[in-house]
Structures
1.
Amino acid sequence: MKRMPKTLRVVAASLATCLAAGLAPSHAQTVKVGFITTYSGPMATLGDSMEKGAKLYMKLNADKLPAGVKVDFITRDDGGPNPDKGKQLAQELIVRDRVQFLAGVVWTPSAIAIAPLVSEAKVPFVVMNAGGSVVTTMSPYIVRSSFTLWQSAYPMGQWAARKYKRAYIAVSDYAPGHDSEAAFERGFTAGGGEIVGKVRMPVGNPDFVPFMQRAKDAKPDIVFSFIPGGPQSTQIMKAFGDLGLAKAGIKFVGTGDIVSDEELPNMGDAPIGVVSAHHYSTAGDRPANKAFLAAWKKEYGAKSIPNFLSVASYDGMDMIYTAIREQAGKVDADRSMAIMREYRNANSPRGPISIDPETRDIVQNEYIRETRKVNGELANIEVDTIPSVKDYWKEFNGKK
Amino acid sequence: MRHNGSYSASPRIGLLEWTPWIIGIAAFFLLPEYLSLGARILIFILYALSLDLVVGYAGIVTLGHSAFFGLGAYAAGILSARFGVADPALQLLAAMAACALMGLATGAVILRTRGLTLLMLTLAIASILLEVANKATSVTGGADGLSGIVVAPILGLFRFDLFGKTAYWLCLAVLFVGWWITRRLIYSPFGASLVGIRENHVRMVAIGSPVSRRLLTAYTMSAVLAGVAGALLTQTNQFVGLNVLSFESSGELLVMLILGGVGRIYGAFVGPVVYMIAQDMLAKQFPEYWSLGIGLLLVIIVLFARDGILGIIDRLVALVRKEAR
């Protein structure tokens, strides 16, 4: 306190007087949450989806905070997959703004870069997208509300092996892409399938046409893809459609990122028949999802569509609110982590979810979905459910 | 203020020239929460200084200066993350050596060209390095970035802390050395001949000046300075991402230099300070629209102050003096 400027001291003194007089302001306690995501650059829609999810939760659940506690939600833009920028923002949020929680983060590389900081500063970090399996192993202060690529790509491989023999893999060239490639390959080959070719595509602003052409030339039964969602899902779907892979009898499968819900209206008819594995679809037939969608449309307009990033941010905020509530607003890093480790919610828009206390990673249902046209609009219809899926990578490799 | 390399300018360090250092030291005590931003600004000043040497003094137009910044950053990072060398001095030396070699090798080829051809070649070199770093995943970490970098405490005493105190002092000290060397260079006969080459290449050849050798020396020196800046960034962040090599990084740096004033040592100081503080404040206020603010700032500079902020100050000073007369 010795460096406290004079004006601050005056304010503090008057505040103390107010308190003594029983005139305490209603927001006596503020919990600061630093939220890093991508608001600018070609992937800006991802940040928008996340922030809307988080803010919707905060608006609907203000009454879930203990009386007198206020959440200060501080947003920062990392401009895309720039891990050093992400790390720098996290450091500033911790040192300058003294946040009690870090949250958000679209990109796995950024989450990995931030990990040593949250370990050193002891700040709970709720990862609301970044799906590389390794992320939660990087720091005991990381907990994840989103997904891992192994959760979707591995069951996708198992499912595909039951129907098809030859697969071609095209994924983005960074950790989540490498994860989904390994996971799909393991699931597919264990089921008797054969991988006829693989390619890794650049993460930032790729042109998918040459890669899809190579996939077509390899004459597989199916092409499996992962790309980091957002506008890229429309781009890859267009490349798949324009090059006539479907006409050549090649089926497109992937993690849900290739048919991200909010992009479906931009895709034309190319995605009809695409099969994907994922944990969330706006078409999910659950009361909690219907309520979530109704609240979303009411808040952001009928044309706005949430996606899996919105839901992970929505649920991630619930984890933070739970920690704040159970500590009555006086948050301590280790207590917060202990509470969030045990988090469970039977009624997430995506179905029942919980955190695995061992790994601090999400446990959730995975759905096999087929993209169909329903009432003139594309939708990812859930056709099969694999309940309570943990991160397979950690299961197979004994990682925590 | 603009130094044209004539012998008439006094090479002595003027009183005014100590201001940046006084501000730099004062900032450490006055703004303890802004040290990581401060360290980054210091790094970019050094980086801008290296660009000023080639663009401003030697007249070598380049859009690929990030090649050296990135190479330095990766050299220091790889040495630590892959070979376990945690000594900060060795990391800096490795970055300098790598950049000196790269500067000599590429400079010997591309400096034979001028103008747009040269511009494209510098761009090409940076693009090639970026692609190499992107693809050599086992060495550089590719798009995931290079993590696991360890930097030992400086002199065994000062640990790199979360608040960036050590990083700030290190950057300030290294920048001081870099500034001193650059300044000596510019005020030397060598510096004068660089300005001569910038102003009239053909005449310098005609009077028997070893033009290509001079240019190559300046280019290599600049490469080494940029590499040191890159290595400092690695040590401060303990992380290297692909964008240190990107075209945007070169472009942004050029913008900072133009903002400050090209061809003046202190243009390289003013530009990064104004640009990065503006960026920090705008990004804080408007996380979604901050790039618009930066864009407007640039439009204003281009319209009203082609010779940068220092150019405006020069004109103002001249105006006041005229009035006084």
2.
Amino acid sequence: MNADRDFLKGNEALAYGALRTGLNAYYGYPITPSSEIPETLAAEFGRGTYPEFRAFVQAASELEAINMTIGTAATGAKAMTATSGPGFSLKQEGISYAAAMELPLLIVDVNRSGPGLGNLGPEQSDYFQATKGGGHGGYRNIVLAPDSVPEMALFPSLGFELAFRYRMPVILLADAFLGQLKEDLTFPEVPAREFDTSWAVTGARGDHRHVLSSLHLELPDQSRHVEHLRSKYEEIVGAEQRSEEIATADAEVVIVAYGICARLARAAVRSLRDRSVRVGLLRPITLAPFPQDRLNALIDGGVRNLLVVELNSGQMVEDVRLVAEGRARVESLERVGGLLPSSGEVEAAAEDLTSSGDLRSALEAMVQ
Amino acid sequence: MIGAQELYETKLGPLPTLTGKPTHYCAGCEHGTLTRLIASALEDLGARERTVLVSSVGCSVLAHEYLNVDAVQAPHGRAPAVMAGIKRVRPDLLVFSIQGDGDAASIGLLELLYAANRGEPITIFLVNNAIYGMTGGQMAPTTPEGMVTTTTPFGRDLHQTGPPLDASKLVASLEGPAYVKRVFLPVTPTPSPEFFNARGALEGARAVRHAFEVQQKGGFAFVEFVSTCSVNWKLSVLESKRYAAKVLAPLFPAGLYRDRFGVEAR
Amino acid sequence: MPESLVVGLPKSRVVVDAERCKGCDLCVVVCPQRNLHLSERFNRMGYHPVEFRYHGGRGDCTACGLCYWVCPDFAITEVSRLRP
């Protein structure tokens, strides 16, 4: 596949997006609904179309996969692994080590329903695990949330750029819907990026050697190391918040939604605006760092009603509340188990938060 | 005037592949012996600048402090997977791990067996001292029947724990590996109570060299070093060597289990 | 070189870094000539470090190197032979 235009599943688009940005190695363990990623990559590895793509291994377990990814990343090469919920849990051990050793690598989680085996439907319930560190110890990862097949293709490039710039794992958090959804897309021109890999293990040079270790036995050393990780993340919070806004300028109510929910919210906003209801959308593109600056600006600008739409029992809503700090009403529309709200339900929930919606509720309460 | 130094020819000397840091290993521990065997082999091969050590978790966790080579620290048991990830994209590098029996034969058994089964061109040195050394003397997969450890305070009961696990035989049961060898590394008692022989170290030196050569030929190499842990066995250094010779040597017999490339024949 | 300079010099030497030694005894028990023994004194780590004597209990050091190979602490830093 080399044509720039195609009609692909999100998972397939992600695989090609990674290949086009110079992916060197993929290691993974099959799991629905992300298996099209290794399937697509296996076919291209066999064809040899992408000369930079030097390693593909179907690992024996998620643990083996993430640790192979770590090994390749330690040499400064571009390594990726992909999975879904249960596999993402297993990968957390390795992600913690990769964060500690400051290794750039890309982890894709095509979020399915959980906890446990759950089902194969879409959820956003790995939000906490992705954005709050996920494994043991204190660290944060950068988390990117695509909302379309074109973004599934584009974000591996962005992911590697951020991973190498900050030397840390980057998580691409999609969901079962986005992984399976087919859309038309045009692959963007991705310039071949050269990253600084002077830290990588490629053999000692005279007296200079490279040691990548997460072990700091001296207490002050470990303290400094964790402090370094934290200040790095603070720098990221300052520099890398990404979001998209639709019709927020005069909005009375702002919907906060990412991934598949953002698509539903977009349709709801369009419909409400057609009826002159002043509702807008803030779509976090980076879930971590959370786009707190834009949300703050909206609240400072007078937005008093926020509606969080997400496919879990209330995860991102906590981050929204943390930013709002009581300055805005934060309501939540949640669906779990693989179910999605309709755009009509999103529309109704948003309208309920407008002043006219408040008035209607009050009238209904009086009638009852 | 000719100095005394110039009159002598160094037969064995300091190795630049060792950092020179004092080790954290207990007195008489084979981890230290193995470290020098590895440094010596890397120098013989001229490989220091193209070598990557993957340190594991256990007493070998600080191996990169002593070996003056590039190194990556693997999570507990995962060294073979990390090594495979390095080697797949950098086949020019010489990649090896030093792992304990808990690391390789318990928590990391899957990673060990699958790397072996795929015949990844890597070198694994397993130090089998039949106990968890770093964590303070708990039962290991290789602990012999009856041995008192902190988690088998009445001796290892095979009805409860199953028998000791034989990593070399497991690895050799697979098609993938090119070289599988078990060496009895400790000094060995002789009929004279005052003397021990050092054959283990000399055989170990050869096995280390062969295991690197096998990797350079594209094969998976695994060497198990039967070792001691006097501190956690609660024996003196020399008593621990006698115990190893009496109990571990028959349980984990030294031998060549696989030599696909015939490196030992030459 | 004039032969007189060489006369009387030991044929081989073992150099011990006493500060690295943990007194484990391994070199002592593998030395075929009994040329190594633990000192009465303590090193900085509190161990009785090993000491080398050319004329041992059984004979002179042959620079066989066994002590070097078994030493877990790289405390036997050098084994050398008198040049012929």
3.
Amino acid sequence: MENNHDEVIREVTQNEYKYGFYTDIETDTLPKGLNENIVRMISAKKDEPEWLLEWRLKAFQHWKKMKMPEWAHLIIPKIHYQDIIFYAAPKQQASLEGLDEVDPELRKTFDKLGIPLDEQKRLSGVAVDAVMDSVSVKTTFSETLAELGIIFCSFSDAVKNHPDLVKKYLGSVVPYTDNFFAALNSAVFSDGSFCYIPRGVRCPMELSTYFRINAANTGQFERTLLVADDEAMVSYLEGCTAPMRDENQLHAAVVEIVALEKAEVKYSTVQNWYPGDKNGKGGIFNFVTKRGICKGNDSKISWTQVETGSAITWKYPSCILKGHNSIGEFYSVAVTNNMQQADTGTKMMHIGRNTRSTIISKGISAGKSQNSYRGLVRILKNAENARNFSQCDSLLLGDRCGAHTFPYIETDNSTSIVEHEATTSKISEDQIFYCNQRGIGTEKAISLIVNGYAKEVLNKLPMEFAVEAQKLLQISLEGSVG
Amino acid sequence: MLSIKDLKVSVANKEILSGINLEVRTGEVHAIMGPNGSGKSTLATAIAGRDTIDITHGSIKYQGENLLEMDPEERAKKGIFLGFQYPVEIPGVSMVSFMKTAVNEHRLYNGQEPLSAGDFLKYMREKKELVEFDSQLTNRSVNEGFSGGEKKKNEIFQMALLEPKLAILDETDSGLDIDALKIVARGVNTLKNKDNATIVITHYQRLLDYIIPDFVHVLYNGRIVKSSGKELAMELEEKGYDWIKEEAGR
């Protein structure tokens, strides 16, 4: 098996990242580095109201006093914040009406990524906000959705057109004081998506944001704010890719979700940032804060994530279960290969009565990668009859990778029930040979077993993306036999 | 169909088979018997092509081709099927997707179009009836939570789906009650025809009451020490293996 193993490692190294191309487009950038002036310039570029600039500046002052968190099971090289460009916007041709308002070069880029910006070509059930580097390029179906009162637009447009909503909810779930990367994002965020579903409306299509990093030496700091009013319902999907580069690039995003009474939000992520090469050179540092609050009674927030990319992932999509009977869910598949590192998981804060949460985490490690699950289930004093079920499984391919589980449970209410299950398994040679003997080659056997293992989570994804995610798992693990 | 010449096999540097010769022609059923540890399973594994064993000497030809140069999956697709003594569990992978993948890999190899989900389910239903396989089990993950008997019946069911030219059944009878044994034997007999061949590996003569072999070989200490017709099996049942050991020792 050892020979086989070597061969397989070799194959992995030849496995190309499909989205690693770069679009040569003129870019409007600010000078590199970070200081108060840069923050003011970003705000000015976006023609922002005074209150938002004030908020940014407060965040920046706070960030300067903070230190990067070191508790994660990650080895993070020093990040030189003064060498990063904090704002880069692709220059668009003079804007024309209708379909042609997107620069052809950008249109081509997104076509290549499989995200056509023409509404006719798009899967009929999905509206997209396409973000390249620091700005939103195009949001499709905005008008169709507006007829239902749904606001789906870039964050910049939201600040201009719906300042009251933005002011009310921005930072209400993830305040700028929350953590180092959230503070950084609050100071320099450039764009992102904004979504508001009015009372009683079920959003008729999937909403999605597609993030693309293109420019070199640039950090991406987008912000997504999603508000579902009473009895509203929405399913949201996020996708992301970046060019292959030798240097690391920083991605520090914030996602905030607010679910009011009986509202339901499903947020799915297929994360496919460039993971770096086989030796760990290059790749995205993905340091993201995602949090939702079930503010109203009987509300529900569900996170589903398929994490295959990034050199380093630091990410804990969480739920604050404030409303009584509210429900939080976290379904995750995290794949690491070669030199990738991931420290990911969730936090479930049970505040209201009869709140329930479910955590299903499936880690898959291959190559020399390190994959950690870190989760906190906290039951507060007044959370009568709160209930949590957690299941954390790890699958190892080969014997040079690591899988770690750090589950924290803190409960201050004796009526709560908290369950935690964890397993670690390996794909055995017996299983592979059994498949081989039925005519199934080793590569295919692994993909079959991994998909079977992750099925519980993949099934939670919207249909169109489940297929995509399955393929992605296959590509990410190509050749990683142990 | 299968021609094994002076085959020597080691596992972890220990010689297990010390010069096996065996000829199997189409339409034949061969039984390989022998006491525990005589090398029966190693022989089956060598034919199937597992890389944990080392072929140190000799040759295996299958349909005129050198089998030893082929991957296990290629051997499988050329029609060699191994019914495992201990079928492995594959959690999360449903029997349907497992066997659909396997059948379509075979079809692809033979230049046929893959079966659609609907066609495969139909094909599966036919085969299930043919070998009396419990329909509920195909909804579960491969062998997961199956009883010993169910696992063995599942091997025969998979064999029915893949329609092999050469089936090797490694101790398929072990751990079966008499009813399960009859079902397994009926399955094997139903699938038998003049164009395929079967090698039945067993410790007991019991299975051979239901699957009638054309030849019986006795494996002892890595060698075939006796080959004869089906009457040899009866003799072994009556007298045990001791006289064989004595004869071989002489």
